[in-house]
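Exercise 7. Predict the joint structure of the components listed below.
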Amino acid sequence: DAGITQSPRHKVTETGTPVTLRCHQTENHRYMYWYRQDPGHGLRLIHYSYGVKDTDKGEVSDGYSVSRSKTEDFLLTLESATSSQTSVYFCAISELSLQLSNQPQHFGDGTRLSIL
Amino acid sequence: DQQVKQNSPSLSVQEGRISILNCDYTNSMFDYFLWYKKYPAEGPTFLISISSIKDKNEDGRFTVFLNKSAKHLSLHIVPSQPGDSAVYFCAARDRGGGNKLTFGTGTQLKVEL
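Solution:
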């Protein structure tokens, strides 16, 4: 299994509070991703990173920010949580290079976030 | 606008028979296709993939077929086993960069004894 740890695994918080989710990898992969999974939508990309301090938006980035100060850590922050952000959040990692052009993403076990 | 579609939310098959899961896509820029399996309370697990330059890839009991002209992808599991019961997601990568994936909504497979 890919060395990906998400923390916390479960969190309940109130509307308007800030929330930070952490993804930690031990694989030294260049790419890291944050997805959310909701019924009827599959997994949707929130933000991703292609290196330290290099990030870009995904399909559903509104209300979320990310930071990557070290290769191994990718943080997802909800500055002011809303009930619509109740979801299961997954982190993924992958490697990509000229020699490794077709590489799957590998996922952590997710964080279940409930915003009341 | 859903670029990757799995039109069957659920599928039930008997143990030992073939399971066929289907996926359709609309974006011609997709160049790499993947299948993931997901058990409850776990993250998706990579199963098998195929590049757009191929039309078939096999790995043990799992075979993925790609029909580019129809923009259709399928996963065959033979023989199906009870442990295969899970949600299966197809995903596609846009060649535009970032190794970003677009996922379908998933198909719940139940393999019955």
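Discussion. The longest strand of chain A covers residues 42-51.
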